[in-house]
């Protein structure tokens, strides 16, 4: 496989060469550079992995031929893609310093220089370049998107809101999901400083922009709980649970807390109603515990037997084996302890959440995917339904609970 890597710089250089030739064809047929030995010396340096010498040659070439902006942009993009940010910055800085660029070329070069600065972690410099581009109307939508990336990284949610609003007005791209999350971030910030009125105003804004914003309702429910109104909180949690299992694991501890505050003996009933509508492993786990507390271990075992009859779920199997070994050791089959150990290991290694945009897997809920930066794309991993007759479940639950 090593030979493939040897071809990479050649492939990159050929792309660059094509871009260069395309550029030179657009200028004039047989222009001064197409047979320029200086150009081929630069190309030779590039192919021999001597990029700094190549850059020196190409920068000088630009001084000879004032219309080689495309060449520079292709070379800058090549270094940027390879993560050689210092070299990309040299190329782009040299380009924007030139006076004979068209407006479009200047906009493009400034934008790429801004991206170089971002990659180098120089957010201040990148920000001022992008703001300049927006003001001049050059590459403005791309610049606005980059500004949002910067403000998100800096957790400057107010500026995220302002910039998203500008972008929304300049493009057809719907921004309601992002805008609702920025409002939620601001609500969280206010709550950390015990400023409930401001927080509530941002939650209302979030729901006005995106009526499906689950996060805003979750924060609101927590506010009701903290404000001493568990009845209102429970209404909101029920509403959220009806929306499906995607965020259920994240809100389950708060929902349990809420149920317990209202009625310690009615938790199994409350969870049972939710479970009937949307069966999912985290809810199954809490429901089986509540049944055990309120109705005894035998009832919990019966419940798990039924559940595993229709769900191919490791978490349910782990819970059933735990219960069998601890409360009904006389019914435990030979090898149950080893089986439990293996299953616990598999469950611990499994992700609880997955991004539906990029597949990023996580153990905890992130409202913004750490990998692809989408908002609201990370959701709980769903349990699989077994197809009847469920042979696996039958063999696991054989002789138990019956
Ligand atoms: Zn993602």
UniProtKB/TrEMBL annotation:
NCBIfam families: PRK11788.1-5. HAMAP family: LPS_assembly_LapB. It is found in: Cell inner membrane. One of its GO terms (biological process) is regulation of lipid biosynthetic process. This is Lipopolysaccharide assembly protein B. It is a single-pass membrane protein. Modulates cellular lipopolysaccharide (LPS) levels by regulating LpxC, which is involved in lipid A biosynthesis. May act by modulating the proteolytic activity of FtsH towards LpxC. May also coordinate assembly of proteins involved in LPS synthesis at the plasma membrane. GO terms for cellular component: cytoplasmic side of plasma membrane. Its main location: membrane. Belongs to the LapB family. The keyword Repeat applies.
């Amino acid at each position: 496989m090593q030979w493939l890597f040897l071809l990479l710089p050649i492939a990159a250089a050929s792309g660059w060469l094509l871009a260069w030739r395309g550029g030179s064809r657009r200028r004039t047929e047989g222009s001064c550079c197409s047979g320029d030995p200086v150009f081929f010396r630069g190309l030779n340096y590039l192919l021999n992995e001597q990029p700094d010498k190549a850059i020196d040659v190409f920068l000088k070439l630009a001084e000879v031929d004032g219309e080689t902006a495309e060449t520079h942009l292709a070379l800058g993009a090549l270094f940027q893609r390879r993560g050689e940010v210092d070299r990309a910055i040299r190329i782009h800085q040299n380009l924007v310093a030139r006076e004979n660029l068209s407006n479009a070329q200047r906009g493009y070069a400034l934008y790429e220089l801004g991206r170089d600065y971002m990659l180098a972690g120089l957010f201040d410099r990148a920000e001022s370049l992008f703001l300049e581009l927006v003001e001049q109307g050059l590459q403005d939508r791309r610049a606005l998107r980059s500004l949002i990336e910067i403000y998100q990284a800096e957790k400057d949610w107010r500026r995220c809101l302002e910039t998203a609003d500008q972008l929304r007005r300049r493009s057809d791209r719907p921004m309601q999901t992002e805008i609702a999350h920025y409002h939620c971030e601001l609500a969280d910030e206010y709550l950390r400083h015990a400023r409930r009125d401001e927080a509530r105003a941002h939650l209302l804004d979030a729901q006005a922009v995106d009526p499906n914003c689950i996060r805003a309702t979750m924060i609101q429910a927590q506010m009701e709980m903290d404000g001493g109104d568990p009845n209102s909180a429970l209404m909101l949690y029920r509403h959220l649970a009806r929306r499906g299992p995607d965020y259920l694991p994240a809100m389950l501890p708060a929902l349990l807390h809420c149920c317990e505050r209202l009625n310690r003996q009615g938790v199994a009933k409350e969870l049972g109603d939710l479970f009937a509508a949307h069966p999912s492993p985290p809810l199954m786990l809490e429901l089986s515990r509540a049944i055990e507390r309120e109705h005894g271990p035998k009832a919990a075992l019966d419940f798990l037997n039924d559940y595993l009859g229709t769900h191919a779920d490791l978490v349910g199997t782990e819970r059933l084996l735990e219960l069998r070994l601890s409360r009904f050791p006389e019914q435990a089959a030979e090898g149950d302890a080893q089986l439990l150990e293996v299953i616990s290991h598999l469950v611990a290694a499994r992700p609880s959440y997955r991004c539906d945009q990029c597949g990023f897997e996580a153990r905890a809920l992130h409202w913004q995917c750490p990998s692809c930066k989408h908002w609201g794309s990370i959701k709980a991993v769903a349990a699989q339904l077994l197809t009847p007759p469920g042979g696996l479940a039958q063999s696991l639950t054989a002789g138990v609970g019956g």
